[in-house]
Every structure is written in C-alpha cells, then in structure tokens.
Design a protein that fits this description.
The N and C termini lie far apart (about 45 Å). The strands form five sheets. Strands 4-3-5-6-7-8-9-14-13 form a nine-stranded mixed beta sheet, with helices on both faces. A four-stranded antiparallel beta sheet has the order 10-11-12-15, with helices on one face. By secondary structure, it is of the alpha/beta class. It has twelve helices and 21 strands.
C-alpha cells in the first residue's frame, strides 16, 4: 500500500506539491481570518507564489500565534466541526484543533499508509496502548487508521501491564502501539509472571513519544534494552496534533517517511532560511487537505535532519531522522549545548533508574542549570557515582543529580490532565 506519489520521481513530487500549495493558499485566503490578515499585513499576493521556493516570502507561524489567535485559524462553521482535540501543552498552553468529517477521513488515510509503511496489513491485529479519549488526537488516529487499513484493533488504553498481557494472551495481537519505556514495564511483568515474551505472537511495536534511534539510525540505549529481552521489531513514528500527519519508519528503519500528499516540509535555520542538505534545523510544516484548521509555514519547534536518498522500500520521499530536541528546550550548560534526549539516553542505560525528571532553570546570573531527580528502589553512593561518571564520559559535563521519592517523581511526570509522561520541566523564563 504505497501511494503512487510516494514512488514518483523527486521532480514529479515537487511539481505535485507546487500545485497543492496553490490550493492551500487559495483556501486560506478565502476561509482563514488569521492568514487573510497575515497576507494583507505583509502585502502578499498569493497569486505570485507558484513554487515551494516562493514560500520564503511568507512569514512563519508560531505556537504563540496559535495560542493567541486560536479561533482565527478555524476555517469552517461550527456546525461542520465533528471532533475537537487539543495539543498536549508540553510547551505553553494547549491549543484547540477542530476537525471536520473530511479531516477525520484524512487522518484515517494518514495512519493507514503509516501502518502499511511499517509492514502492517489487514491480516494483523493491533493492540492500542495509548488513550483514545481526553482530547488526544493520536489515539483516535490509530483507531481510524486501523479501520481504514482493515486491520483489527484492541483498545486497551495506556498503563496497567496486567490488563495489557491479559489482552495479548486472549486476543493474540500481532502489533502493539506504545511508548517505548512502557515496553520495559511489560517485559518486567512478563518475567515476574512466567510469560514467554517470544511466543506471545507480537511481531512489532509502533513506538511513540520517545526516540528509538541515534542519528545514524542505530538503536539507542532504550531500544537495546527492549530488544535484548524481546525479539520484536521496533518502528519509530513522529507526529503532532498541529501536523495532522505522521512520519513513520518503513521496514528499512532509516527514518520516518514523508507523505507529500499530506504535508509540505521545510527545515529552517534561526533566520528562517533553509538549511543545507544534511544539516539540522527546525521542522516547519504546511498541511495539505486539511479543512478545519490548516496551517502554513508552522514552526514545530523540533530540530531534525532530513535524509534524501532513495529508500530500498520503493518510496522516493525524504525521511526525517530522530528528533534531536525541541528548540525551546535547548540548554547551554557550562559551554556545552545540550538537548534533553541526550540525557534520556544516558539515564536509560541504568536498570536501577526506575523513573526520573529533568528540571531546567536559570541561576542567579541567568545561566542554565540542570537538576535531575531520580527514583530508584536501590539508592546508593555507588550508583550515584556511576551515573555521574557516565554523564562526564558521554556529555563531558555533569548536571546536579539527586535521588528522590518515586511517588513524588511520578506526580511530577503525570500532572493533572496529562495524557503522556512529562520527563522535562523547564522553569526558565
């Protein structure tokens, strides 16, 4: 199930996106109060924008724009809105997105081709280990995508290893969708209850919310720990509510594939100029085919690299590498630039580190400070020293590290109304 446009030549894909861009601009100029105002304020004649390169004349859209003018982005009457979702609010206030019936069909198509990308087909059964309620777009997308693909789906929701294993044993799913660190909890439960992981029938896991790979696509520490115990394929998928689109790995596992029929992407530097090929920059997106709340040149805040070589799977679309970090969570610490994922990878190397939270703040001279709070059943000076040595070796700097009560860390990780664990608290202004 590879759409024809994804097998087309690079020039044909670009020509297709040029035409889709014109449709998007006309739609926004007709229906979006925010973008009509933007075009008028900056004297932009959309009829002069005929290619992806011409996008550079249009100012980018920020998360702050969405927060400050949320309703001005909605392009349809209220009666046409079928579903309301909100962003997770990881950075700043959550934003509401309104979806029409057409948007839900687009969401289903997006997830169906994403599942197919990872090798899932109509003969498979998928166990969903994320919430489908609480205004969460991803859980709904997975359910709709499975139905579009014709695969079966078991809606268990997040957490509760006992219920997850009961469902696996009863219904025999072939794939699961989960946060990777939760797979470690499933492994732990299986070992305690004499469940044979490798005869469970699970072929693979679609993993969300946490990176699986290093920048060269080798397995990171978290993935290695999973694979050492459970012989299943791990597929990374990257998406956001704002994008209404997913970038999912194929069976080659060399980055998340771009779906050019659904989204235009740019990777920009701090001056909003395209980075050189192979360089890291901020992913900036324009959504195609969205009715309720389409976006133009929206800066996601995620720092990524694009890979343009043709993939052995037959798709000719570019691929996004693992997210390096969120731009707003970049830390300047003792002369070194850090992103939280680098610290996640180090902490995941320790079996005794059962939970943690990274707090970023400013000190009295307004420079960045890092405090890592660790929950463990076996705190000791030796463990603390081992963790510190690992940080010095891997990152060349040592943040402040302390042991904390596991219950307190869990409260920090799951604040009220949270839909997924929060591993970073940024207290900087």
């Amino acid at each position: 199930m590879i759409p024809d446009i994804e097998k087309a030549s690079t020039s044909d894909i670009k020509a297709f996106q040029n035409e889709q861009l014109k449709l998007l601009l006309n739609y926004l100029n007709t229906h979006s109060a925010f973008y009509k105002r933007l075009f008028k304020t900056h004297n932009i004649d959309i009829n002069t924008i005929n290619s992806l390169e011409d996008l550079a004349v249009i100012p980018t859209t920020s998360k702050e724009d969405l927060q400050n003018y949320n309703d001005d982005f909605i392009c349809v009457p209220r009666k046409e809105i079928i579903d309301y979702v909100t962003t997770s609010g990881t950075i700043g206030e959550p934003v509401t997105f309104a979806l029409t019936d057409s948007d839900l069909k687009r969401l289903a198509y997006n997830e169906a081709i994403s599942f197919a990308c990872a090798g899932i087909n109509q003969d498979d059964v998928i166990q969903l280990m994320t919430t489908i309620d609480r205004r969460f777009m991803a859980g709904l997308a997975y359910f709709l995508g499975a139905r579009e693909l014709g695969a079966g789906i078991i809606r268990v929701g997040n957490g509760i290893p006992e219920l997850q294993w009961d469902s696996i044993i009863k219904f025999k799913p072939t794939y699961i969708i989960a946060v990777p660190s939760f797979l470690l909890k499933l492994i732990e439960y299986a070992h305690k209850h004499d469940i044979d992981l490798n005869t469970s029938g699970i072929k693979g896991a679609i993993c969300i919310g946490e990176p699986l790979r290093e920048q060269d696509f080798s397995l990171n520490t978290l993935s290695q720990k999973i694979k050492e115990k459970w012989d299943i394929e791990l597929f990374s998928t990257y998406a956001s509510t704002e994008m209404n689109t997913a970038f999912t790995e194929c069976e080659q596992q060399q980055g998340g594939h771009h779906h050019p029929e659904l989204i235009i992407i740019e990777i920009l530097d701090d001056d909003n100029q395209p980075v050189a090929q192979g360089e890291a920059g901020e992913l900036t997106i324009s959504t195609l085919g969205v009715e309720g709340m389409p976006l133009l040149r929206f800066k996601t805040g995620d720092i990524v690299k694009a890979h343009n070589s043709k993939c052995d799977c037959g798709r000719n679309t570019l691929r996004l590498g693992p997210v390096i970090g969120r731009k707003k969570q970049m830390i300047k610490y003792k002369g070194t630039t850090l992103y939280p994922p680098a610290m996640h990878n180090i902490l995941n190397d320790f079996t005794k580190v059962e939970s943690y939270i990274i707090e970023i703040s400013h000190n009295n001279i307004n420079t960045d400070e890092i405090l890592i709070k660790i929950g463990t059943s076996d705190p000791s000076d030796d463990l603390l020293q081992e963790i510190k040595d690992h940080f010095r070796a891997k990152l060349r700097v040592l943040p402040k590290i302390e042991f904390n009560d596991k219950k307190e860390i869990r409260k920090l990780q799951f604040p009220k109304m949270s839909r997924k664990p929060m591993l970073v608290i940024d207290k900087r202004k």
